[in-house]
């Protein structure tokens, strides 16, 4: 956005938002001011298309910051089908990206219709389609985003909202505890921050690795695993922050770095290699991972980097030069793991990278194993995502979601020190004597129930309209009893969420 013909700047964006917000509050101080901008950026030298519009500025000036994750308008998210990982994880990834970088509570972030998560409210943009409006000039797309058609009939997404509410009401917990995270993904200067964050988040989900986001210029939380995805430019990581990370590695943490054209101090000594040369590749590059049948992996956006191991354990090489591409090196009590390509940005820009071979997620699976990330339940399937939530009484609630349109059959394993506890609308695991078990998740288009059986596989049916649609225990009859019609359900939802909120301190 240009203000009065002036050059775009962060100060100008801040001033514009402050002026609009203050005008609304002056007219009606009882209602929250909601911001729903697409593709906000991190606050320090982002290489995104609108670096002046930042997550923290919007969160500071408004009461409710929404992710507004429409794939059509959000960069890098419209490449794959609607029922694939890229689309079903888009809302979750962008919400976590905004919440973690902005430092706001999760309740201040909302998801689009049909993609609600437990404990996160939904704000609906439009009740009905607006194709018949004559008073307004709607000459661009966006007139058919309502929950109801022009004739008043409900769209499938509204039925999914009702089913989602019934599912949440049927859970044994009023609200899920916060998910357990395994590491911190640090976004850096001069990179496409959203591309790096989204690629890291999806690959982590596929490998069973849960992360939170921070920018390298923000305070770095204590963690056992740190990720620096697709670093770019000579100023990507300030020297003091790099040395801080190395101190934590020597104390036992694991640091993963994937290389764009980024430069960090003392790289050879820290990574256990010697960089011989760097050049632009005359042809596309690839790597072959040890023990992975579906290699080679195309290295989109990678420089032609020639390394010689100097103490590093090589995990993947280029088939043409045998130069190391993926390796790990012991540093003090911890590990440094390196992938010599901007992996996360590459898979984000590559259509279909998350849904078929080659298995890029195996890189993150190796990072998880190197970091000795403990899990209550181990699922070796990139199509199924899982989160763990620890309750105050020592139990662990496991939420499993199938992010594809086909049935997935799995062989699960319990983590060390865990045993299967109560079952029902989800999986509850208690830290008792370990024992083997199996899961069967059977779903239909109308009623979804979870059945636990002693069979050597897990069967998870495809989702319908939302990533939360795989684990429900409510019938259409129950929904109809509680809500006489779907329009009334929508009205109740919007009235409940748009009641006055207390002002920020």
Description:
With 505 residues, the chain is α+β, with helices and mostly antiparallel strands. The protein folds into 3 domains: 131 residues, no CATH class; 188 residues, Rossmann fold (3-Layer(aba) Sandwich), CATH 3.40.50; 98 residues, no CATH class. Helix content is 25%, strand content 21%. Strands 4-3-5-6-13-12-11-8-9 form a 9-stranded mixed sheet. It has a 4-stranded antiparallel sheet with strand order 15-16-20-19. It has a two-stranded parallel ribbon with strand order 1-2. A hairpin with a 2-residue loop joins strand 12 and strand 13. The chain is globular, with a radius of gyration of 24 Å. The protein starts with 9 loop residues before the first helix and ends in an 8-residue tail after the last helix. The relative contact order is 0.12.
Q: Would you summarize the structure shown here?
A:
By secondary structure, the protein is α+β, with helices and mostly antiparallel strands. It has helices at residues 10-27, 55-61, 85-88, 90-102, 156-169, 193-207, 239-250, 267-271, 343-349, 361-370, 476-482, 486-497, and strands spanning 34-35, 64-65, 183-187, 211-215, 225-231, 254-259, 273-279, 286-289, 297-298, 304-309, 313-317, 324-331, 334-339, 377-378, 384-390, 396-402, 408-410, 413-414, 419-424, 426-430, 440-443, 448-451, 458-460. Residues 1-5, 105-120 and 426-505 have low confidence and may be disordered.
């Amino acid at each position: 956005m240009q203000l009065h013909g002036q050059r775009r700047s962060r100060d100008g964006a801040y001033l514009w938002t402050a002026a609009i917000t203050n005008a609304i509050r002056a007219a009606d101080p009882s209602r929250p001011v909601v911001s729903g901008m697409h593709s906000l950026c991190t606050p320090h030298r982002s290489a995104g298309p609108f670096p002046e519009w930042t997550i923290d500025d919007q969160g500071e000036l408004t009461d409710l910051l929404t992710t507004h994750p429409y794939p059509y308008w959000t960069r890098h998210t419209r490449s794959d089908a609607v029922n694939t990982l890229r689309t079903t994880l888009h809302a979750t990834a962008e919400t976590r990206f905004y919440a973690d970088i902005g430092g706001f509570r999760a309740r201040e972030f909302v998801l689009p219709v049909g993609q609600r998560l437990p404990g996160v409210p939904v704000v609906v943009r439009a009740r009905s389609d607006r194709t018949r409006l004559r008073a307004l000039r709607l000459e661009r797309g966006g007139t058919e985003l309502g929950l109801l058609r022009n004739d008043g009939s409900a769209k499938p997404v509204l039925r999914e909202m009702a089913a989602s509410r019934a599912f949440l009401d049927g859970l044994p917990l009023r609200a899920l505890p916060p998910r357990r995270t395994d590491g911190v993904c640090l976004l850096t200067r001069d990179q496409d921050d959203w591309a790096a964050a989204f690629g890291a988040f999806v690959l982590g989900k596929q490998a069973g690795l849960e992360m939170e986001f921070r920018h390298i210029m923000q305070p770095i939380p204590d963690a056992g695993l740190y990720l620096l995805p697709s670093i770019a430019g000579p100023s990507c990581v300030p020297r003091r922050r790099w040395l801080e990370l190395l101190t934590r590695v020597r104390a036992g943490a694991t640091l993963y770095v994937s290389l764009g054209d980024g430069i960090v101090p003392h790289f050879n000594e820290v990574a256990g290699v010697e960089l011989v040369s760097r050049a632009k590749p005359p042809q596309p590059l690839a790597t072959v991972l040890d023990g992975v049948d579906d290699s080679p992996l195309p290295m989109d956006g990678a420089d032609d980097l020639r390394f010689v191991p100097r103490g590093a354990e090589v995990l993947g090489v280029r088939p043409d030069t045998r130069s190391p591409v993926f390796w790990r090196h012991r540093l003090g009590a911890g590990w440094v793991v390196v992938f010599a390509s901007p992996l996360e940005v590459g898979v984000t820009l590559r259509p279909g990278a998350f849904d078929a071979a080659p298995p890029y997620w195996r890189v993150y699976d190796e990072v998880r194993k190197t970091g000795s990330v403990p899990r209550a339940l181990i699922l070796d399937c990139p199509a199924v995502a899982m989160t763990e939530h620890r309750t105050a009484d020592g139990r662990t609630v496991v939420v499993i979601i199938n992010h594809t349109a086909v049935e997935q059959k799995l062989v699960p394993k319990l983590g060390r020190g865990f045993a299967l506890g109560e079952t029902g609308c989800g999986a509850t695991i208690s830290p008792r004597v370990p024992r083997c078990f199996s899961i069967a998740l059977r779903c239909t288009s109308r009623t979804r129930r979870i059945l636990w059986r002693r069979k050597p596989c897990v069967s998870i049916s495809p989702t319908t309209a939302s990533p939360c649609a795989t684990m429900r225990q409510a019938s259409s009859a129950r929904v109809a009893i509680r809500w006489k019609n779907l329009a009334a359900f929508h009205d109740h939802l919007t009235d409940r969420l748009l009641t006055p909120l207390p002002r920020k301190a």
